[in-house]
Amino acid sequence: CFKCGKPVKEEEEYCPDCRKHSLAFTQGRGIFPYDEKMKYSIMKYKYFGCREYGKFYGKAMYIYARDVIRRWKPDIIVPVPLHWRKFRRRGFNQAEFLAEELSGYTGIPLDTTLVKKKKATKSQKKLNADQRRKNLQEAFQITGNPAGKCILLVDDVYTTGSTMDVLSRAFLEKGASKVFFVTVCIGSNR
Questions:
Q1: Between β-strands 27-33 and 76-79, what pairing exists: parallel, antiparallel or unpaired?
Q2: All residues at 6 or more sequence positions from 46 whose CB lies less than 8 Å from its CB, including other chains
Q3: What is the pLDDT of residues 70-113, one digit of tens each?
Q4: SS3 content of the chain, % helix, strand, coil (to 5)
Q5: Could you tell me the strand order of the sheet in which 27-33 lies?
Q6: By the 8 A CB rule, do 97 and 82 touch?
Q7: Sequence-distant (≥ 6) Cβ neighbours of residue 146 within 8 angstroms
Q8: Is it the case that residue 8 has pLDDT exceeding 70?
């Protein structure tokens, strides 16, 4: 998909989600397909302390997305934040770890203070697209000044686009010029 990067048929430019919804981000890319092997790998990274996976993912994000990132010309990299309770349970923010790695490779400054997750939400993985959007309403708060900045959001997985859309809208409402994203994995439309 030209907009979100999901796999599409050769004759298509946009995936069904991007045709159906007006998503606020400018463009995004995922590095690996979100298949059973990657689901298992991401689970080990997020929940079982395999931080070395994050180092690998960060390097892969740089290698496979560097050309598109250069074209986007982001001013800052911003990881998708975790609510403090989830952070305390998990012990780290997987998106922040990835963003740190990507920042190190690209030289683009990292900002972990620009947005926070102010509301604890249900886990997104068992919700459908509409439930995900509702679940994230008013979950994030922009705490810094993104005015005029081109933002690159980083997360581990992109499936329906709900998280990226909600965050992008919040940044654009506060004056960001554009919002792009890069994720380790990208889902497909079934």
A1: unpaired
A2: 90, 94, 156
A3: 999 999 999 999 988 888 888 899 999 999 999 999 999 999 99
A4: 45, 20, 40
A5: 27-33, 178-186, 150-158, 76-79
A6: no
A7: 114, 171, 174, 175, 176
A8: yes
CB atoms within 10 A of CB 2: 11
Closest CA to 6 of 172, 162, 160: 160
3-state secondary structure of 157: strand
Separation between Cα atoms, residue 1 and residue 173, nearest integer Å? 25
Going by C-alpha positions, the residue among 4, 2, 1 that lies closest to residue 180 is 4
> What spatial distance separates the first Cα and last Cα of the chain, rounded to whole Å?
14
pLDDT digit string (tens) for 130-147? 777 777 777 889 999 999
C-alpha R_g of the chain: 15
Among 188, 183, 158, residue whose Cα is nearest residue 7: 188
**Of the candidates 94, 138, 148, the residue with the CA atom closest to the CA atom of residue 115:** 138
Find out whether 151 and 74 touch, Cβ atoms under 8 Å: yes
The reported pTM is: 0.93
